Amino acid sequence: MNTFRQRIRESIDNESLQTALDNNTERRLKGRAIAFQSIPNLEERRKWAHAIRADVVEHLDKYLEQFVAKNEENGVIVHRAKDAAEAVKLVLEITQHAARTTHKPLVAKSKSMVSEEIELNHALEKEGIEVIETDLGEYIVQLRHERPSHIITPAAHLKKEQVAELFHEKLGIPYTVDIPTLTATARKVLRQVFLTADVGLSGVNFGVAETGAMCIVTNEGNARMVTTLPPVHIALMGMERLVPNLNDLSLMLSLLPRSATGQKLTVYTQLLHKPFPNQQRHLVLLDNGRSRLRNSPLKESLYCIRCGACLNACPVFRELSGHAYIGSDLSIAPYPGPIGSVISPGLLGGNYIQLAQASSLCGACKDVCPVDIDLPKLLTRVRAGMAAVDDESGTEGAGLSSPTKLFLRIFARAASHPWLFALSQKFASLGTFLLSPRSGWVRMPAFTGWGYSKDFPRFAGKTFRERYRGSSKAGNRETENRPKAQPASAHVNTFPLSDIQFAAELTALGGQVRTVQNPTLAALELLNARDVKKIHLEPNTLDEELLRAAGIEFTQEADPQIQVGVTKALCGLADTGSVLVADGKGDPLKASLLPEVHIVILRAADIYPSLSDAINLVKNKAAAVFITGPSRTADIEMTLTIGVHGPKEIHVFLT
Amino acid sequence: MTTVQLFVTCLIDSFFPQTGEAVVDILNRLGISVGFPREQTCCGQPTFNAGLRKDARAIAEHTIKVFEKTEGDVVTPSGSCAHMFRHNYPELFEDDPVWLPRAQALAARTYEFTEYLVDRLGVTNLGAKWHGRLTYHSSCHTLRGIHVDRQPRALLSNVQGAILVELPHADECCGFGGIMSVEHPELSAEWLKRKISNFESTQSPTLVVTDAGCLMHIAGGLHRTGKTQSVMHIAEILNQQK
To answer: What is the residue extent of each domain of chain A?
Structure first.
């Protein structure tokens, strides 16, 4: 038995892994289904999203040129890397250059699957650079010296007891399985990392060709930290991850979080145009096989937006988790699940070709894909040798075991010749009767594969073709050929534009919403109740005279010691309970990120129905973020925990 | 009089001929004459799914030629083979200007058995009778490959005396997947276990399927573990007249 099959057996036999995976699957699928009830026309959206991604991949050169030009105009330093080695070298050089002192350079990293693909951490560490993952799940797997087991929830394979032991051992805290305590510990440790890192490194969810925006979504707030606090930010991006404009982006954002985590919108949806003052920003665009994939029959795999829904829906992934998707060199494939079984061999070749054969082609992946990628078709193409990266991935029956291949070749010969086929049936029938004269079933040994868990039916004594004597006389009844009427068109929801909906959505996420006459008085009430004397305040937001009179000190400078930040919101979104905060005087982006409590002043008149109505407000902003509730994570046992890296509380004062 | 051509499928031909006969009986009772081109073999799906496209093309060319000599719709009691004709044959000949139109012509006249009854003939009640519980497993290629699900369910809902019980996670794969069940028996075994346990939870003695692949897989698993429940092709249920 090959090692891949051994690894599969180990996964299946690992009880705690199986429990974790079952929980992950059930909750994710349910969460996704519920999330999609809140938007109309899912099927139309999927087709539309498919068309947008198809257009981007078809005209990638044009969109890339536009995206790069806009970024350069925005003051971003753009690099192109043709392969993993080039990308690693670029990041290394930028980091070494950025290191401020003689201490060991420190890179604070938020989730990036591309960095897994190019094995960046390992390469940087080898050069004496310290790399710390800051997504809670990634941090956990890094402490365990593992790779992520899922592209969205990296620690989906672990139970809380394992995390408790890990934190006890590595971070020196008393053993506890209390998930909020574990999360708070990570917050404390990682806050220091954000504040002292030389370089912040992030992935990019979407690049917007029209404006050059990099869209990055996270729930915990770690991507906001690494893109905001360190003096140098490196954004690492697969070159195909573009959308033409902001409207297209809003469509993608209606699909991505719902598919990935069952959220209507991720807590922090960042749009970065220009670097912050005193910050240098680099964008590394990675090819690493994407150009070749684009010119191959596997092109459609480049439409992927990395939501992970196909992993959750896949019965193979449900048994395996990401760690069992291994190559023939035993290395773990960077991308697991159905999409991984296409692009891991598609990008990296024959080493991962065996993954594509581990599928029943059941199609559950295609059904949940938000951009409607025909994954079963792509899997059969990989099997047909169309990855064609090297000899192994370029032959028909790629990844198939030799006995099966031989059997199928003989079978094909028979099936193209009816007399040979009928003869084979005769022999097979005779054979199974000899093996099992008394039962309709044959017990085969386990090594045959089939015999591992089931019996094989005995061939019929007489086949259908032998028994068939022609159609009996048909009745006299005339039958009309009438196709049935099409089902009624999709039900369309309409959404009321209202502050009530906004309040309901945000409250459901754990935020607070109040309609206030005087926001300064309301803020004072909150500050007094908590005995807070100093706040980070965006100018022209509260009545500064009144604050002074009440003895509250305020500053426009970010300060990690401050517990409350107060900002305005450019707008609110009714259907998700989000507020938009943009870069400006007094550093509102940091005021909405570093403190534990964020107070937002929002005019009720500025509430839009949905993201698609408001997305163009960010067009001329250096940077902006849609904030949807308090910072949160579900990285440990999918248990929702509030307040990871960003604020634990968000209070919206409606005026 | 309407004539259809039966593509009986290699599994039914070889293992379950009585299912093919039930299909013929039902169609005959509806006044449809059924042709059976005897040169038919297998649709070629095992080779196609394995990635052996050259071999799959040889079988597909043979099958296309066999049915080109006939007239009328092609009816097959398998969502999986219908999916093969409809989607995979055109994929196989994508770059072949000679064979692509011939493949598309076959695809256009092919119907899965229950799809043919409900969508093409407009029949949902066949006057079938049953006693006791039945539960329905949605075969992957029937459900997600050719989007046929309401048709078999409508037909079953009109079986007199049958108590239909919903199978939990009816849409999950049973773990057959053709050669996957041999290439990855460990995976296949896990899904089979889950399918059987969901089946048992319905307390129905009979599981209904639209595909002989799922049938031989689930029934083989039941037999191996000494269980007495049975798996039946929908055609045999619908053909019960007393």
So the answer is: 1-34+306-399, 38-288, 401-439, 499-654
Q: Is the alpha carbon torsion for A255, A261, A264, A270 positive or negative?
A: negative
- Which ipTM value was assigned to this complex? 0.96
Domains in chain B: ranges and CATH:
3-119 (no CATH), 125-238 (3.40.50)
Q: Which residues contact B214 (CB under 8 A, 6 or more apart)?
A: B137, B139, B174, B176, B231
The model's confidence at residue A101, banded by pLDDT at 50, 70 and 90, is low
Chain A residue numbers with beta carbons less than 8 Å from the beta carbon of B87 are 377
The string of DSSP letters for A53-78 reads HHHHHHTHHHHHHHHHHHHHHTTPEE
Q: How far is B187 from chain A (nearest CA, A)?
A: 7
For residue B192, the chain A residue with the least C-alpha distance is: A453
Q: Who among B39, B141, B173 is closest to A315 (CB)?
A: B173
Give how far B137 is from chain A: nearest CA, Å.
Answer: 13
Please give the backbone phi and psi of residue A73, each rounded to the nearest 5 degrees, phi first: -60, -35
Could you tell me if B91 lies within 8 Å of chain A, comparing CB atoms? yes
Q: What is the pLDDT of residues B136-179, one digit of tens each?
A: 999 999 999 999 999 999 999 999 999 999 999 999 999 999 99
Give percent of chain A with pLDDT exceeding 70: 95
Q: What does the alpha-carbon distance between residue B16 and residue B10 come to, in Å, rounded to a whole number?
A: 9
**Does the beta carbon of B15 lie under 8 angstroms from any beta carbon of chain A?**
yes
Among B13, B34, B46, the residue with its CB nearest the CB of A408 is B46
Q: What is the pLDDT of residues A237-273, one digit of tens each?
A: 999 999 999 999 999 999 999 999 999 999 999 999 9
Mean pLDDT of A333-353: 96
Q: Could you say which residues from 454 to 493 on chain A have a Cβ atom under 8 Å away from some Cβ of chain B?
A: 454-460, 462-468, 470-484
Question: What pLDDT was estimated at residue A469?
Answer: 79
Residue type, A449: G
Interface residue B82 vs chain A (CB under 8 A): no
CATH superfamily of A499-654: NagB/RpiA/CoA transferase-like (3.40.50.10420)
CATH 1.25.40.20 fits A38-288, yes or no: no
Q: Is A292 in contact with A83 (CB distance < 8 Å)?
A: no
Evaluate whether A38-288 and A499-654 have a shared fold: yes
A3 touches chain B (CB under 8 A): no
Q: Is A497 or B175 the better-scoring residue by pLDDT?
A: B175
